[in-house]
Design goal:
Strand content: 15-25%
Distance between the termini: 25 Å
Helix content: 25-40%
Order of helices and strands: EHEHEHEHEEHEHEHH
Number of strands: 8
Radius of gyration: 16 Å
Bound molecules: D-xylitol-5-phosphate
Strand order of the largest sheet: 1-8-7-6-5-4-3-2
Structural class: alpha/beta
Number of helices: 8
Low-confidence stretches: 1-5
Largest sheet: 8 strands, parallel
Length: about 240
């Protein structure tokens, strides 16, 4: 974490983290649903930014980050599923992101992008799609504060969990250890629910992004969050 971090950046939560993805929220009630999730113990929020190019979907962008920043002190994790992320890192940092994640596959100069995120005072994350090998991060493990192992192909919520991506969690942690580094936290993102989360936790994941199983499942946000946390706690 660079010394020049923005004073306003929230400290990244550690340990078991449940991170609702607002992709699945009701945008007519976004502030209320975020507040409800906060009250029910959500540790941080993921904001999925999609450009319709890098992924076949368009979602949300800077105005949503700015609006949420104004109403919550929760840790905001901005997941850039966009081409040329370097063009927008500064804007999302200024909008209030605490963590900015770029995709290894979309970043033309990953080392530079990660350095820029940290120089702006934010935590730096990098995401790997299910087909992208862990080894693609071998030269930047000292530059990341979080690694995202995508357990779906990016672009949509409500997809089926790709279990084949899970062993990558262990491989990435071991790669860091083999280099004498403290392994950064590994986040899993996509198809995470009380059945799949324990599988990822057993492999060493500690940050769990969940959209549909928090905002869409019938028991309601508080009960859904509790079920997710209860499913993981024994593994952590
Ligand atoms: C995919 C998105 C989703 C979202 C979570 O591009 O990144 O993974 O955050 O979606 P659910 O939890 O509905 O699978």
């Amino acid at each position: 974490m660079s010394d020049a971090r923005r004073s306003s950046v929230q400290t990244m939560p550690t340990g078991l983290v449940i991170a609702p993805s607002i992709l699945a929220a009701d945008y007519a009630r976004l502030g209320a649903e975020v507040a409800e999730a906060e009250a029910a113990g959500a540790d941080w929020f993921q904001i999925d930014v999609m450009d319709g190019h890098y992924v076949p979907n368009i979602s949300i962008g800077l105005p949503v980050v700015e609006s949420l920043r104004a109403v919550t002190d929760s840790f905001l994790d901005v997941h850039l599923m966009i081409d040329n992320p370097e063009a927008f890192i500064q804007d999302f940092a200024a909008a209030g992101a605490d963590l900015i994640t770029v995709h290894q596959e979309a970043s033309r100069h990953l080392q530079g992008d990660l350095q820029q995120i940290r120089e702006l005072g934010c935590y730096a994350g990098v995401a790997l799609n299910p087909s992208t090998p862990a080894d693609t991060l071998s030269e930047v493990l000292n530059l990341v504060d979080l690694i995202v192992v995508m357990t779906v192909n990016p672009g949509f919520g409500g997809q089926k969990f790709i279990a084949e991506a899970v062993p990558k969690v262990e491989r990435l942690r071991q790669m860091a250890i083999d280099r004498g580094l403290t392994p950064p936290p590994v986040q899993v993102d996509g198809g995470i629910d009380p059945t799949t989360a324990p599988v990822a936790a057993a492999a060493g994941a500690t940050v769990f992004v969940a959209g549909s199983s928090v905002f869409r499942w019938p028991d309601g946000i508080a009960a859904n969050l509790r079920a997710l946390r209860d499913s993981i706690a024994p593994q952590i």
